[in-house]
Amino acid sequence: MSKQQPAQFINPETPGYVGFANLPNQVHRKSVKKGFEFTLMVVGESGLGKSTLINSLFLTDLYPERIIPGAAEKIERTVQIEASTVEIEERGVKLRLTVVDTPGYGDAINCRDCFKTIISYIDEQFERYLHDESGLNRRHIIDNRVHCCFYFISPFGHGLKPLDVAFMKAIHNKVNIVPVIAKADTLTLKERERLKKRILDEIEEHNIKIYHLPDAESDEDEDFKEQTRLLKASIPFSVVGSNQLIEAKGKKVRGRLYPWGVVEVENPEHNDFLKLRTMLITHMQDLQEVTQDLHYENFRSERLKRGGRKVENEDMNKDQILLEKEAELRRMQEMIARMQAQMQMQMQAGDGDSGALGHHV
Amino acid sequence: MDTLKESPSPCSSRHNSPRPAPCEMPATVGIEAVLDQLKIKAMKMGFEFNIMVVGQSGLGKSTMVNTLFKSKVWKSALPGPGVPTPQTLQLHSVSHVIEEKGLKLKLTVTDTPGFGDQINNDKCWEPILGYINEQYEQYLQEEILITRQRHIPDTRVHCCVYFVPPTGHCLRPLDIEFLQRLCQTVNVVPVIARADSLTIEEREAFRSRIQKDLKSHCIDVYPQKRFDEDPNDKILNSKIRERIPFAVVGADQEHVVNGRCVLGRKTNWGIIEVENMAHCEFPLLRDLLIRSHLQDLKDITHNIHYENYRVVRLNESHQLPRGPGWVNLAPVSLASTSAGQVTTSGPSKAHKRAQEEPKYEF
């Protein structure tokens, strides 16, 4: 390829050909050298198969020594954020994947404060990026912003739970949400269709903005258009994850072995795992773009409007600030009164030492 | 006693041994006849069984009840698309009379939609506890009347089936809280719901973790160890206790498998047969609840849980308003029993307490 470039450049037989049609190749080479970064957040109740699915998607073992906590530990735990990074290389292309896990979500009896930790994490990453972008040295900005959030919906309910709705509404303006129906092998085909429709209806009812796949361009080939159409029709994806190899119909497949049959992870008739993977891979770039152009820009404009003052607590309203100021004033006044009293006492006690004591205050 | 010896005892005619010579005494007295009499009476009166199902929505409670009693106790499993899930916990009872071989069973199923579905599930067990205690109260009121009914209608909850979601990890804090509180008031049978999402190894690991959690939190589920009366019971119940919680799958649709018509769930990769022990443990649950331990559940409810409730209530009785036909109970000295505190002990202690207050007159 590189040999053709200069030849075309100086080829006199094609007048008017400048040669910048090769720019994409240059970009391609540069990005392959640089590698890609992607941050994926997984949120869902415990036991929905999040870790298994991530391991299956990226064919790695991100959680090698995982100890599942007992019930007693679960009672005390609050939501935590655990980020693990792994470098995956495929045909010379490097992907630096960060998976942000949220253990403890939805476990507590009272889940009202469940998502505060998660939202503050997302905001923190935006804050850090904004800070880096506005800094002096902008060469190596590490992009840790969350590009995509897989939200795991339990297949056992009749649709979205109140917690699901509340969480998605809280983060749909900050991150791309991809709803996923977990443990799909517990549903028959009819139940799956019914659940998907129910979830889509509820998402529309509550005005939740999930990530929408961009329509295929009109100049793309028919296969790609068809693929995009199929993907769009299957949202939310109902998936099964597994990294165990089972013998089925003479060949080894990844799946789950039950007494009544084998569920194959990569069989499109059994679940939507392949569709999820395709969507993630073909739209990784788009997810990053939407994060940059939409969510980050929203955050940035909000932040800059606030004028650079970092607001710790979003519920802090004017009354609270006033109260705090008043308390501070009172404290100052008390301190001054104390100092005055001290001075008076010392003046009465020793006239000679007033000079030295005066400095003491 | 003479009448017994004179009348032809029905059971001796069933014996295969030759009739004894007329001048000899028959070898048996004929007490066995009581069993037949009991049976005839039971057939006439019928049985009552009250079961409560508790669990988050979508865990297959309604389907399970339909499968257990092989009839459409609940009309449909899923609420319609326009029906919102209830905002608070509600209790919903349905009564049916089921008949089998001439024996009538009045089955009452209490469902608890809305349990554990909200964002804040704090104290979501209180309505359930309230309902159970209310049934005890109703029975107590009937029992204390001066002129009692011949057969007090029994609406007390005999068994509470608690559906644990198949996370595969361990019991959640909500499960622990609920089980701790309810095991002291009612017989609780935990089951792993929708068990078709777990492979056999995952199921066993989940079960042993749950058993460990139950033990470490001192939760005594049915069959309770301390109520085992004789060694036979102990052996039988130990076998059951090893398998608790049962991993169950419910289905109310029939499919044809190998020429047989079975209840099951049809998926793209196979048919899950509900009554097949290799697939799920539904037969164990059914046997426990209906075929072997139904009477035991009722007995423990009546002799232990209800008695405990009764003792507490009678101790507080001097603070209560009087209803019609109320018997004036002498107030008990609070020193003998810790007021309001019920330690769930065996039946002997409950009887002992009753003996300590001989002033009760009824």
Question: What does this protein look like?
Answer:
Chain A has one domain (28-310): P-loop containing nucleotide triphosphate hydrolases (Rossmann fold, 3-Layer(aba) Sandwich), CATH 3.40.50. Chain A is 45% helix and 15% strand. Chain A has helices spanning 4-10, 23-34, 50-58, 71-76, 114-133, 162-171, 189-205, 222-233, 273-282, 284-305, 318-349, 354-360; strands at 36-43, 82-90, 93-101, 148-153, 177-181, 237-238, 245-248, 251-258, 261-264. In chain A, the strands form 2 sheets. Chain A has a 6-stranded mixed beta sheet with strand order 2-3-1-4-5-6, sandwiched between helices. With 362 residues, chain B is α/β, with parallel strands linked by helices. Chain B has one domain (38-74, 87-112, 124-317): P-loop containing nucleotide triphosphate hydrolases (Rossmann fold). In chain B, 37% of the residues lie in helices and 15% in strands. Chain B contains 11 helices and 9 strands. In chain B, the strands form 2 sheets. Chain B has a 6-stranded mixed beta sheet, sandwiched between helices. In chain B, a hairpin with a 2-residue loop joins strand 8 (260-267) and strand 9. In chain B, helix 9 (282-292) crosses helix 10 (294-315) and helix 10 (294-315) packs parallel to helix 11. Chain B is globular and about 65 Å long. Chain B starts with a helix and ends in a 6-residue tail after the last helix. Mean pLDDT of chain B is 78; it is low at 1-17, 76-83 and 330-362. The interface between A and B is large, with 46 and 49 residues. Chain B: Residues 45-316 form the Septin-type G domain. Chain B: It holds the Pfam family Septin. Chain B: One of its GO terms (cellular component) is cytoskeleton. Chain B: Keywords: Cell cycle, Cell division, Cytoplasm, Cytoskeleton, GTP-binding, Nucleotide-binding.
